[in-house]
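Title: Comparing notes on inverse folding

I've been comparing how different people in this forum approach sequence design from structure. To keep things fair, I'm posting one structure and asking everyone to reply with a full sequence. Here's the target:
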């Protein structure tokens, strides 16, 4: 069963961390295969979140609502992938920087093109729908599909970013045990997050210290 992290009441954080990094961890005490699996998964996860965060900052340099945090591996074929979902903040009268849905969509498409995203598709709907979606991909950043949804409201506008990661090779059950050695807990993530805050990656601190028991 897919485990997701649901939206909760936003709260603000008064600190900002360094930009995301996917550097290799120096892991000790675990087997070579487990060390590689964990490090490769963390690199793929960080690369995806870093790329999404650049678009977030371009749109809104503030705290975003966390809908799906993105550190839970999902099965795909014989491997695993990650998903990230962020949204502009609810509860405040936030407006589209480009003033209209289509203008905002055009701005995002131009940004995606400039930053070498592929497969960009801009879909407009009937005027009464009042929303536009954009799809794109960037496999080099471990992103198989990005879905941007832009909508306008009477008092507050909204942009949603959903990113589905590429399918990575590896044993998802072993990775799950490495990331959550004491079992999964769904209440360990921030309800809001600035794009430049360093993301959590499971609950191992700072990395697994032993191979999971079979």
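Reply #1:
Here's my take.
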């Amino acid at each position: 069963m897919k485990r997701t992290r649901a939206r909760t009441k936003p709260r603000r954080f008064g600190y900002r961390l360094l930009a995301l990094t996917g550097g290799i961890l120096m892991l000790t005490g675990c087997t070579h295969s487990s060390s590689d699996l964990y490090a490769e998964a963390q690199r793929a996860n960080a690369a995806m979140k870093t790329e999404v965060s650049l678009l977030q900052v371009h749109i809104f340099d503030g705290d975003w609502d966390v809908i799906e945090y993105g550190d839970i591996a999902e099965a795909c074929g014989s491997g695993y992938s990650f998903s990230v979902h962020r949204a502009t903040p609810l509860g405040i009268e936030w407006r589209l920087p480009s003033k209209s849905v289509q203008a905002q969509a055009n701005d995002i498409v131009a940004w995606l093109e400039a930053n070498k995203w592929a497969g960009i598709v801009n879909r407009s709907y009937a005027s009464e729908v009042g929303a536009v979606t954009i799809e794109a991909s960037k496999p080099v950043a471990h992103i198989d599909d990005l879905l941007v949804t832009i909508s306008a409201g009477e008092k507050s506008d909204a942009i949603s970013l959903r990113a589905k990661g590429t399918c990575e090779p590896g044993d998802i059950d072993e990775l799950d045990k490495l990331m959550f050695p004491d079992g999964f807990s769904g209440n360990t993530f921030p309800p809001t997050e600035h794009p430049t805050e360093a993301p959590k990656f499971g609950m191992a601190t700072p990395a697994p210290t032993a191979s999971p028991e079979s």
